[in-house]
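#lab-general

N.A. 3:47 PM
ok so I finally got the sequence cleaned up, no stray characters, all 1017 residues accounted for. can someone with queue access submit it? mine expired

B.Y. 3:52 PM
send it over

N.A. 3:53 PM
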Amino acid sequence: ADGLAHNVVNKIVRDSRGFLWFCTREGLSRFDGYSFTNYGIRQGLPSANVNDLLETREGVYWVATAGGLCRFNPLGKPQARINHTDGRSADDAMFSVDFTGDDARSKYVSSLLQDRSGVIWCGTQNGLYRLDLVAGEATISPVDLGIPDYLESRIIESMIEDRRGALWIGSHSGLYRRWQGGQVEAYTIAEGLRDNFIHSLLEDHDGRIWVGTRSGALCRLVPDPSPKRNIVARAYSDRDGLPTPWISQLFQSSDGGLWAGSTGGLIQFMPTADGREFRFRAYTQVNGLSYREVGSLAEDRNGNLWLALAQGGVAKIARSGFTTFDKSDGLSWTTSIFETEGGDLVVFGGPDIKKEGFINRFDGEKFIPISLQFRGILKKQGRGWGWNQTVLEDHTGEWWIATRGGVYRFPKVTKLEQLTRISAKATYTTRDGLASDVILRLFEDSRGDIWIGSVGEGRGPSGLSRWARSTGAFRHYAESDNLPRLDSFYISSFAEDRGGDVWIGFSAEGGLVRYRDGRFMVFTANDGVPLGSIRNMLVDSSGRLWAATYRGGLCRIDDPAAAHPRIVTYTTEDGLSSNEITTVSEDEWGWIYIGTGRGIDKLDPATGSIKHYTTADGLPLGELYSSLRDRNGRLWFGFETGTARLVPKPNPSPVPPPILITGLRIAGDERAISALGETYLASTELSADKSQLQIDFVALGFSPGEGLRYQYLLEGANEQWSKLADQRTVNFANLAPGRYRFLVRAVNSDGVFSEAPARFSFTILPPFWQRWWFIAIVTALVGLIAYVSYRTRIARLLELERVRTRIAADLHDDIGSNLSQIAIWSDVAQRQAAYGDVVERWRAADQAAQPLERIAVTARETAAAMSDIVWAINPRRDHLNDLISRMRRFAGEAFDSRDIVWLLDAPQMNLSLNADTRRELFLIFKESVNNILRHAHCTRVETSITIEASWLRLRISDDGRGFDPHRRSEGQGLDSMRGRAQNIGGVLEVESAPGSGTTVQLEMPFNQYRWWHRRLR
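B.Y. 4:20 PM
back already:
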């Protein structure tokens, strides 16, 4: 039910990381303090019956099974095992089998050992084998020990290497010692052993070798045994208190204690005062074990002892220092604990909670009841209501007993047993001045006076009385003496500080009262006293007063003598396990022990750190009534189901809890991590869509109620550690791109953090649009676009300026010239029309016809020029087809009027042309047409426009009279055409000869103008 692979555990092993491994009949179990991880045949073990596990100094795990020897690969995947003979890689296998033996006896590996030279020794049912590793390959060979070859004699169960390097082998046929040189010595019954069936061997810290046998005895060998001689220095049997001769395993704990697992339970070796001999104490079902038979033993990193129980799984003995005494020790319940003047520890209680109690004396091992004369009185009167301070031995040795029938006073005795034969010296009741006969508390102050707290029965008030030793009389105190209302509150505890002031605790909200110089002073909740009955008080070694309240926690008064003392309170908010405090005590190192309904809290007043002890640490069940520190420094705690004893020790060096990362999921995908966990994971880079991580971790802590808590820090996202929590998994979702380092650490109940946190560094890459190279490219592109836009804008402005300049030039050259001509011819016509007579006027009108005709022609040329200008700058006419249409219209009208045949060959391509190109092309064409009309005297003109590759060609040919192109011409037409061709990056060529017609050809690059135009658009 707890997760262990099987209840039959053959061996318990602790590895270097702190994990506990349980070799069971149904597989291998690993325990981390929280849960078990199990490995079986499905994970690759050659047999489910696991006998031993060895972690070598190199960190390799070897597993001994009934089916052979195999290696454990913590990075492997659970799958079918890989045999060493398969010739396949074992990197992915969780278990790889290296030895299966030649027969069933040889492959049954029972024990493993690595010696100081690194050799691994394998004990089997067929003798001893030696395993050597060469370049990772295992070589296994048998070793001859001279063991007789008969059934079971060759079975080897245990091995040790002593401090001289000799190998000791325990078998079913005796004990063997193999020296490093290979010499073998055999020891049997003939050499003094009590049995040849050797189960367990141990060399203790003092170099003594112990031998556990099946049915003979527990043997301690002589310091340097020799063959053919007695080798046993001391043999322990039932005559020495050994509960059984069958020793399953010998073990020495870290504190030097010797233990043995046996068929008679767990055996503790208890050295005598001189340390030369041992007594034995057995722990069985009576002490809480579920089974009597104990096999393998191991110790966890916290010092707790683990036992393998026959058919009962495993048990843990918490090494918290507590020893519990219960009904089997003569005591079932306890209310009051005190120490006599003679040094006897006395407990008021009994073996049965349902029966009346009596005084019990501790004899060192158990409690001895003392049947007193007043026991009959207790049966008749009742033992009162008190749960503490109910039995008192005063400084003179007299005994005071609280009952429901008053206070009984007995004379001094030299031995407690004398109380069984004497009668009460006096009985004090209400007739003697007590407020009530139901006595709750008894207390003796430093003056020897006896303070008595009583409880009113029925409607009667409670009371406080003081018996003055000087007068032998009682003084009763009431509310008139400045006490709380005694009809509402009763006295629940007494204490006296260093100054001699008596402190009295009351029930409920009655508060705390100080008695000084005959006067009472009350401190209540208004003064800082917690609410609830004050069940117990303590004045510690520093003079501080501590008060245990039943509802408000623990309060501390650092200066009880102060007129208005300062009160400090500890509650669950400060780390206490409960606010219901019943008792308080102090050890010799100043630690405060606080009894609660949930166990015992150990408080360090200097730091405020608190450690919790519960039933898991061995405490009895039920409510804690009282506590005491005896003169030897031992602490005793009285529970309603028994008594616990603690021998405090100086705080040992704190053991930091090791922390391991055990799991990693990235965006839901599990990443490979060692099954044993890792303290460090290699850094990795993750894509932007892998921003969700789940990290599992665990700290190894095996103390009961350890209460390990965890903190993590994600550097790159946070600067502070998280709050302490017990969760062992953390999720990070939608992490922003960046560099991160995950740190996790644990803290135990002593407040000790892990020595070093486990860590994992990773980088989440940004999306490509957030990466530097993309940003650089985009920045460059934006810069380029901005630059191109700027250049384009400048180019457009320049082009606009050129257009404006050209328009101005055209208007000035063409339109201005034409308008000037019109003006001149108009003046000529006007002067000619100004003659005097009619005849002269008719003659002048006839002469004016020519100027008017010239005016009309010039006007038409001006309109045509204006049309060309408007067409050239019109953005709707920026295609090649628009140019061809205008060329066709212009040439058609011109040639038709002269009866000249004109042919045009042009592509039907709607390609873009900018304004400059269109204008220059058209004007070159127009000039060519005008030249043909004026000079060619032709009958046929052919025009073609072609686009090949990246070039545009305009070709115009006529069949006219031609001319000599090399002859210097007075006109500027050809030079103007060539200039226009250069403006658009082209070349103009003229081919002609007299009588052979003329050809004008323009070639210009076309792609650059098309790209330029698209860029402008």
